[in-house]
Amino acid sequence: MTDPQAGPAQPGETKAYSAAAIEAGRLLFAQECHFTWGAAALDGLPPAGLPEIAFAGRSNVGKSSLVNALTGRKTLARTSHTPGRTQQLNFFDLGGRLALVDLPGYGYAKVSKSLVASWTETLKGYLRGRVTLRRALVLVDGRHGIKDSDGDILKLLDDTAVATQVVLTKMDKVGKGERERRIPEVEAVLKAHPAAFPHVLLTSSDSGEGIPELRAFLTDIAQHG
After folding, report:
1. Which domains does the chain show, CATH number per domain?
2. Listed residue (165, 213, 220) closest to 69, CA to CA
3. Residue (of 146, 129, 179) closest to 56 by Cα position
4. Alpha-carbon distance 46 to 133, whole Å?
């Protein structure tokens, strides 16, 4: 397997994994995956157990679609065209080896300030106190790059010292020329965030781009932390 922290050699390239690593990822994500817990507040979190991977991102960035694509299921994580639909931390057990945690979407202005404040406090508490949290994936729409609210979550992850990987989504909608601009642009922003790995991963839930590689990446974390 290549180093899971290494990034693309050139803008727009997908990082290569060995065939064995891709197969290990396929096998893990082919295991039974089911919803186990929903928590709207810190006192509702499940007991710590499996290593956890948290999925964070702006509303409608494609978090639920990515979880569904990774697991090969269409309805595991509920998708919605209504931003702000996910209003709790949703936990999924993957084969008894890894927990996938779908966090509430952020950056949607029509959600009430009181609800945003509540989500933020719950999120801070989860990130600071969850000993089984191995990595936070921050999903960023590849068509738009990092927005102010993405910067806010990256800073929060810096403050809570949670290892962070940025994943660009919807890359099937981003042309070659735009990719060559967008990827270095995002990676330049990441240099200011010590908790973030310096290279991005590229994905598309629709075309399947980057899905085998992301599975391999997460499988390595499940195996080795």
Report:
1. 35-133+148-168+190-195 (3.40.50.300)
2. 213
3. 146
4. 13
Answer yes or no: are the C-beta atoms of 139 and 200 closer than 8 Å. Answer: no
Query: Quick one: which of 110, 99, 93 has its CA closest to 59?
Result: 110
Q: Report CA 218 to chain centroid distance, whole Å.
A: 10
The DSSP symbol for 58 reads B
User: What sign does the CA torsion over 85, 123, 205, 144 have?
Assistant: positive
- Give the integer Cα–Cα distance in Å for 73 and 116: 30
Backbone φ and ψ of 145, nearest 5°: 75, -165
The tokens for 124 are 């801070």
CB atoms within 10 A of CB 83: 17
Residue recorded with tokens 């330049």: 188
Single-letter amino acid code for the residue at 117: A
| Predicted confidence pLDDT, tens digits, the chain (225 residues) | 444 444 444 444 456 799 999 999 999 999 999 999 999 888 889 998 999 999 999 888 999 899 999 999 876 655 444 444 456 899 999 999 999 999 888 765 566 777 777 777 888 889 988 999 999 999 999 999 999 989 999 999 999 999 999 999 999 999 999 999 999 999 999 999 999 999 999 999 999 999 999 999 999 988 876
